[in-house]
């Protein structure tokens, strides 16, 4: 069911944020389920040491748990020995994000470890070459719309310059400066419509565990109340939820 993945394709630098439980020498559980194929991994001392791909045909919490257990057993690490868990928050697959966030919350609550919620686009930005700034990260939001967020590289790393946006693709294109680069799951789709766009290398377009770890290492731990309230980063309801809505009055 689970296949090893090569986590060395992109190796963004991991920098501790200096907060409590922020030491990257301790093992961190990583959960990335924003795409069709989810991943779980373990990281320490700035790099991913073990990882697994999840079967894309099985998208339930009960299927993610055995992968985590197997990973910890292979590493010889008890769940309670983990410094924390970092989870990809979205945007992305509604089902995958819901399963990933729920599993991360359960693990953190059961073990008492830290939980860090990492916006998926922040992880993607970490994978871009430093020269590719300013950087738009984009993904297809369906029905003619895009998710988009602008990042800028500084001495402190990649920093978001806008909120996560949901807007028509054509409207997004009007905001893209000539010197900007484009990455994210929707980068190739954007380039099909606008070949003049400058893209980052293809291997950096989709979130990786190393990108998740790099972005999460610069973020604070959630408080207990924040843990309980945490939800995936949804900007719009799923298509199924929209179909269940009563029609609006004229």
UniProtKB/TrEMBL annotation:
Molecular function terms, GO-annotated: transferase activity
GO BP annotations listed: tRNA threonylcarbamoyladenosine modification
Stretches with biased composition (Low complexity): 14-23
Region ranges (Disordered): 1-30
Keywords tagged on the record: Transferase
Domain Gcp-like: 57-152
Keyword Transferase: yes
Pfam name, any one: TsaD
Protein name: tRNA (Adenosine(37)-N6)-threonylcarbamoyltransferase complex dimerization subunit type 1 TsaB
Organism listed in the record: Thermogemmata fonticola
GN (gene name): tsaB
